[in-house]
Structure formats: structure tokens, C-alpha cells
Design brief:
Elements: H1 2-28, H2 37-44, H3 50-83, H4 104-113, E1 120-124, E2 129-133, E3 138-154, E4 162-176, E5 180-187, E6 193-204, E7 207-215, H5 220-223, E8 249-259, E9 264-271, E10 286-293, E11 306-317, E12 345-358, E13 361-374, E14 390-405, E15 439-453, E16 456-458, E17 471-473, E18 476-490, E19 495-506, E20 517-529
Helix pairs in contact: 1-2, 1-3
């Protein structure tokens, strides 16, 4: 259809132009038309009257206007044909518009030009692609990141060497108005799972409300963005944090804010406490509170980069929901240092942390402690002892890490370093540095973790509720620690190569068949984000 319309329009133009040339030829009495139509008027003026000349000029002007209109129609038809969108406009559609209904193309053009600017603006803001309104009030940014790794293991009964995709996440984030931020992030590495889905209402800096599914604000380490963690895995004590089995995320709501120029920050939240998209199992929500102090934030001395704080969490577990104590699997998957037990009753967590950032140096540390009660839990354990209360499961651990950028970049608080001389472009946001060898960072971390589950004995001679044959719950007290060292190579602000070497020391193994020993793990990974 488009080809037919285009061909017809071209033939019409050709016919009119031929008619025009024939008119000039008849007026001059010559067999060939002059190259310039004005020459016809000049040559014919010798024998024609003034009125005839004026009439001829009017006819020429009318034909000229018709030709220009047809040319414009042909150009628009050709443009539509070249665009390949399968939609013919103007001559073919205008006649088909119902009476009183405006052409959609005209509506779009009027909307686009009403303010004198395009209605939408798309581009690159130096860090993300974006689509925004002209006044910047509404913003949409596609975001995502990919973490791939290869693990090499050495040690008796260690896992096999393997390649894996740790994360493959994609989503959008932005703002809807100046006081409402939002984010939707999906995990696609194994199965499609919602990771983050929240809105953050920010009427004032000191009072903000976030609702949806997001990270539980308990730990400094977890609060660091997944792509901003210098090591390939978080520390081994991360198993003690809330909702560790659900990527530290849970549905809920919190109130947070920055006071006194961000010298004081707070978070208070209520969550389901069961991980991703999971309903609560008791009538008591998980309650989390966190405080962070940076008293010298705006000073010029060495304490400027020092921050510290702490957090607390309380929730309740339900034995009939088959809830278990914290997982004892090492962060690199080498072994399980501590078994899991059925739990029932109150859960309490405490945390303390600090960070010191100065130039290319970054020092961070954190301590976490967990108590998971086992009230009236005996009958739920193998060889249980009725409904008697057993001492709770205790977990303790800490880490300290040291990072140093060899190429002169500054260690950021919760971000990727601004690479001064990237290996590949584009340069970091706000910088126009020449290409080079990228940014190189050395890193070291030590962490230790302890798990204890005290035993119990039930004897019918002293406790009538116990079975006739005395029952015993065995105690557990296991320890492990980890040394991690390596380097990061930032090819640019978006591409990072991580190399980690871990020494895992298993002191009191809980897995039968594994003796106390050291395991050696090398992790080589690649991270890409946009």
C-alpha cells in the first residue's frame, strides 16, 4: 500500500511538471521549454497583453504551490516507508479520521511543542542510562549487575572446583516527584525472584518512610551495596544477621533519617522476619533499630572519616513452623562448621560497628551476637525430652577489614572508587581522565565465628514429665575463622575484576567425616554493572 501511494504521488508530480512545461512551450511557440520558467514570461511579453501576463503568472504560482505540497507528501510517505513501522500517515489516513476526531500525530506534535521542549529526555547521566521529564521531576533508570566467579578448593572433603553466576540482577529505580524514590530489582541467576521492591517517601531529611521489600537495616556490612563490597563474599559472621537466608531482605516498613548534617543517622523498622516475600509466622513482628554517629564528619582533622554505631533486633520464632537456628555454612561454601537446631521462642540480636576512611585507606570492623531460644522444644528434637525448655542457641562473631587503593583514588563510604585512569572508557562520572591501567586495590580481612548449643539431661526421677529412660541432648560448641586477602582491579567505574584468597580454619567440625584442618580457597570473579 505504501509503495502504491508513493508511486502514485511521484507520477502526479511528474504529470503536473510536464503540464507546466507544456504550458510554457505553447506560450512561446517553441518545441523545447526554457530552463527557467521566467524566460517564458519575458519572451512572451512582446506579443501578450499585460492582463494575459498577469493571468499566466497566477497560474504558474498556483501550480508551484501544488507541486510543493505534493513534494512534501512524497517525502513524508518515503520517510514512513523507510522507518519500517508499518503506519502510513497524512494523505492515506487523514481522509479516514472520523468526523470531529483529531489526528493522533497532530496531538503528539502539539503535546511535544506545547512547552517548547520535548516531553521526554533520554540519555546517560555519567553513571546510568535514564528517561526523565524535561523538568527532572520524574526519573526512570534501568539498573543491573552481574557477578560471575570461579572457585578453586584445596582440602580433604572440600567441594569441587566450579564456575557459577553468583548474581544476575536487573531492574529499575528512580523518583516519582521530588519526595518519592522507588526501586524494583529482580534476580535472574537461578529463577526469577523479586529482590527489592519499595518506595521511599522523603518529606524531610530527618524523617523518611520506606515500605515494601528491602534490606533489613541491622548491619553496616549488609547496608553496603552488593556491588560495593570489596570482597567477593561478605564476612563469615553474616550468617548471624536477620533474614540471612533471604539475602538479608524482608517485607516491612521503616522510618529513617539524617540529622545534624548526617552526623547522626537512625533506622527503626518492622519486618516479617522470614526472608523474601514470606509472611510472618507469629503475632510479633521483627523489630529492628540502628544508630550511626559521625561526629567529625565536617571537620578537617584525622577523625573526619570515623563513624561508629550499633543496632539491636528482636523477633520470635515458632517451632511448629519448623524454624531452625542460624546456618553454619561458610561464606565460600567450603564446609558447615555448625549444625542447625529447631528453635522456638524469642530471638535477640546485637551489633556494634565502626569504619575509618581517610584518602585511599579504609578500615572497617563489626561484632554480632545472636540468641535463639528453645522454649518447650524438647519434643521437636530427635530423642527429645518432652516439652522441657532447652538452653538457647548462641552465635558470636566479628571481623575487621583493611583496604588500600594503590593508584591514588579515595576509598568511598558505600560506592565504587572513581577510577582516575580507566583501562576502557568511558571515564568515571565527573572526570575526564586519560586512559591508563585502571585502579588497583589491596585488601585483607580477618573474621571469626562461634556457635554454641548447650546440652540438657532429663531424668524421670527428678522431672516427672521426662521419659522413664533418661534422655540427653548433646552439647555443641564449634569455632571457625577465616583469613582473606587479595586485590581488586577496577577497569573502569563499571567493570571490576576481584581476586580473593581464603584460608578457612575448621577447629571443631560439626560434620561427621571431616577432621579439624585448614582449607584453601581461591575465588576469581568478574563484576559488571550499569
Amino acid at each position: 500500500m505504501r509503495r502504491f501511494l508513493t508511486t502514485s504521488a511521484v507520477l502526479i508530480v511528474f504529470f503536473l511538471m510536464s503540464s507546466r512545461l507544456s504550458l510554457f512551450a505553447e506560450g512561446d511557440g517553441a518545441g523545447d521549454a526554457p530552463a527557467d520558467p521566467r524566460a517564458v514570461l519575458v519572451s512572451s511579453s512582446k506579443s501578450a497583453s499585460k492582463e494575459e501576463v498577469e493571468e499566466l503568472r497566477s497560474e504558474v504560482a498556483a501550480q508551484q504551490q501544488t507541486i510543493e505540497e505534493l513534494k512534501a507528501m512524497v517525502q513524508r510517505l518515503m520517510g514512513q516507508q523507510g522507518s519500517g513501522d508499518g503506519h502510513v500517515v497524512n494523505a492515506a489516513i487523514v481522509q479516514q479520521q472520523p468526523a470531529g476526531q483529531e489526528d493522533p500525530l497532530d496531538v503528539a506534535q502539539k503535546s511535544a511543542t506545547k512547552s517548547g521542549e520535548p516531553p521526554l529526555t533520554a540519555g546517560w547521566n555519567g553513571e546510568h542510562f535514564f528517561l526523565t521529564s524535561t523538568d527532572g521531576t520524574f526519573l526512570l533508570m534501568p539498573v543491573g549487575y552481574l557477578n560471575t566467579q570461579y572457585n578453586f578448593y584445596k582440602g580433604d572433603a572440600a567441594p569441587s572446583d566450579t564456575f557459577s553466576i553468583k548474581r544476575a540482577r536487573f531492574g529499575v529505580q528512580g523518583n516519582y516527584g521530588k519526595q518519592l524514590d522507588y526501586a524494583f530489582l529482580f534476580e535472574t541467576a537461578s529463577s526469577l525472584t523479586i529482590r527489592d521492591a519499595y518506595v521511599d517517601f522523603k518529606p524531610w531529611n530527618g524523617f523518611k518512610i520506606m515500605g515494601g521489600q528491602f534490606k533489613v537495616p541491622f548491619s553496616m556490612e549488609v547496608g553496603t551495596g552488593d556491588t560495593n563490597v570489596e570482597f567477593y563474599e561478605r564476612s563469615i559472621i553474616s550468617v548471624l544477621y536477620p533474614d540471612a537466608g533471604g539475602s538479608y531482605r524482608a517485607p516491612g516498613i521503616d522510618v529513617h533519617g539524617d540529622l545534624y548534617g548526617a552526623r547522626f543517622q537512625y533506622w527503626v523498622g518492622l519486618f516479617n522476619g522470614q526472608g523474601l516475600l514470606t509472611a510472618g509466622t507469629t503475632n510479633e513482628p521483627e523489630v529492628v533499630g540502628r544508630l550511626r554517629f559521625s561526629p567529625w564528619k565536617n571537620s578537617k582533622g584525622w577523625p573526619k572519616g570515623l563513624s561508629f554505631g550499633g543496632s539491636a533486633e528482636h523477633s520470635r520464632s515458632k517451632g511448629l513452623a519448623h524454624e531452625l537456628s542460624f546456618s553454619g555454612v561458610m561464606n565460600d561454601g567450603t564446609y558447615t562448621f555448625f549444625p542447625q537446631f529447631p528453635i522456638n521462642g524469642g530471638v535477640a540480636r546485637y551489633n556494634g560497628f565502626f569504619s575509618f576512611l581517610r584518602g585511599p585507606l579504609g578500615v572497617r570492623g563489626e561484632y554480632a551476637q545472636l540468641l535463639q531460644k528453645r522454649d518447650n522444644i524438647g519434643s521437636l528434637t530427635p530423642g527429645g525430652i518432652g516439652f522441657n525448655t532447652i538452653p538457647g542457641v548462641i552465635g558470636k562473631g566479628a571481623y575487621v577489614s583493611l583496604n588500600y587503593l594503590l593508584t591514588g583514588e579515595r576509598e568511598p563510604e558505600n560506592a565504587i572508587p572513581r577510577v582516575k585512569h580507566p583501562v576502557i572508557g568511558p571515564p568515571s562520572p565527573g572526570e575526564s581522565a586519560a586512559p591508563g591501567w585502571g585502579a588497583w586495590q589491596l585488601k585483607f580481612r580477618y573474621s571469626w565465628l562461634e556457635g554454641r548449643a548447650p546440652g540438657a539431661t532429663c531424668d524421670a526421677t527428678t522431672i516427672p514429665a521426662c521419659p522413664i529412660t533418661p534422655a540427653i541432648v548433646a552439647p555443641f560448641s564449634d569455632h571457625t575463622d577465616q583469613f582473606s586477602a587479595g586485590f581488586n582491579w577496577y577497569l573502569n567505574y563499571w567493570v571490576l575484576v576481584k581476586s580473593d584468597f581464603n584460608v578457612d580454619r575448621l577447629r571443631n567440625p560439626s560434620v561427621q567425616g571431616i577432621l579439624p584442618q585448614n582449607y584453601f580457597v581461591f575465588v576469581e570473579g568478574l563484576q559488571f554493572r550499569f
